[in-house]
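2024-03-11 09:14:02 DEBUG pipeline.ingest accepted 1 chain
2024-03-11 09:14:02 DEBUG pipeline.ingest length=200
2024-03-11 09:14:03 DEBUG pipeline.predict start
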Amino acid sequence: MPRRWVTERHRDPYYRAAQREGLRSRAAFKLGQLNERFHLLRRGDRVLDLGASPGGWSTVARNLVGPEGQVVAVDMRSFEPIEGVMFLRGRVGDPALLDRLGSERFQVVLSDMSPTISGNYSTDHARSVDLVRSAFGVAQHVLEPGGTFVAKLFDGDLTGELRKDLGESFVRLSVTKPGASRSQSSEVYLLGQGFSEESG
């Protein structure tokens, strides 16, 4: 692990705040900020968190939907259990995952998945787009009409086509960058609201 990266991480106010508050990752602040602005999660919602490890987003989602809601976390890597969160070990893109998720719909599908970084930006961007498409493939099957889809994306030349393709399935599709995202990062979030099965 490069010394410079470690130094920058420890200077990061969101990393320090996550450590201080006992949060599983600094990413928890990103979802909190997105929710504050766009009102994505409501009490009683069923939420599917794809690529959930180490559980930062699942923890925030669980707190927001309350005991009357439900959060299902999916990842190939297990993590320390979170009270009130159901964990499924599985790979996004595996057809068997849809069967395991069952027939009950979700109001919100989240994906904070990132590709393995190669160091070549075009490659990393393309892999990020593929992850968004895989997450949306799941959402198309499990998201209830009117539901919300949130996915991390490394911005780049394929973003326009991705926005066009996904935008056909939502009343609104926004691209935003929460304050907790590092300013030098190309990371943005796609927010699809008002899912429509007929147009998807």
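2024-03-11 09:14:41 DEBUG pipeline.report The chain has one domain: 27-195.
2024-03-11 09:14:41 DEBUG pipeline.predict end
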